[in-house]
Design brief:
Number of helices of chain A: 6
Strand order of the largest sheet of chain A: 1-3-2
Oligomer: homodimer
Shape of chain A: elongated
Largest interface: A-B, 56 and 56 residues
Structural class of chain A: mainly alpha
Largest sheet of chain A: 3 strands, antiparallel
DNA sequence: TTTATATTTGAACAGTTGTTCATCTGTTTG
DNA sequence: CAAACAGATGAACAACTGTTCAAATATAAA
């Protein structure tokens, strides 16, 4: 039998390297949460909404007018943005004002823009 | 006629504010490129692949073995990762070794993980 | 209370996505 | 050359996504 021959499911990785590679993959719970979170940025309408909210909180109707879409469509998207904690909101009478939730959103948009501009 | 009354499609925004808000939305070309780019991160399999490639280049077969998936499924995903420039590759004989393309990928994964861990 | 306004919600539908399976291309070895 | 292997590709199908439309809430004003 060959000196270094061991049966593994891998073509090039040793078992030790496979252990390392596996450890650099985030835990299953994190993989799911991360992909769900980043998925939110993967839609043109949501990117536009996030862009519009960059400097100023806005109500649903005004976002709809800015993007030339129906309040219903915007509301559906805000629901996703809200549940993924990309935006927060406050009520004033009949009106709900939405704003970016935190700096992570800004950072990801900025890095993403850098990438696509290169 | 009221002093400050002007007909606008907006509920709260003045025309000047609407101009500002519209300017903070990236240009249409960038919105599309950015959402297409970030969409790539929005899938658990692709997040796992990117995780596995964090420290070390890997061939298709070994990625498939690590994730317990078929080489075909991995190849389809690598095609997307490649065309969005998240990974690069080099050939060695029959084997193709894939690696992360640049630091943007790392950054977005890190910021995303920070976000979902909070 | 009735009416109007701002937003949300749920069902429905077309369009998109990820995996499988069979097949094909490219490379090395005999 | 043919056989074997690594990976890519295209069609197909179920599962998912975003928008529309109609209807429901919630708040404010009459």
């Amino acid at each position: 039998m060959d000196q270094n021959e061991t049966i593994t499911p891998y073509q090039f990785l040793t078992e030790a390297e496979a252990v390392d590679a596996r450890q650099s993959i985030p835990a299953e719970r994190e993989v799911m949460a991360l992909s769900e979170f980043l998925k939110i940025f993967g839609d043109a309408t949501r990117v536009r909404i996030l862009g519009a909210l960059r400097d100023k909180e806005l109500c649903v109707g005004d976002i709809a007018a800015l993007l030339d879409m129906t309040p219903s469509a915007i509301s559906h998207q805000l629901k996703m943005l809200k549940s993924a904690k990309l935006v927060k909101y406050r009520r004033e009478g009949k009106t709900l004002f939405y704003a970016l939730a935190d700096e992570h959103v800004h950072s990801i948009m900025e890095i993403g823009l850098e990438h696509v501009r290169e």
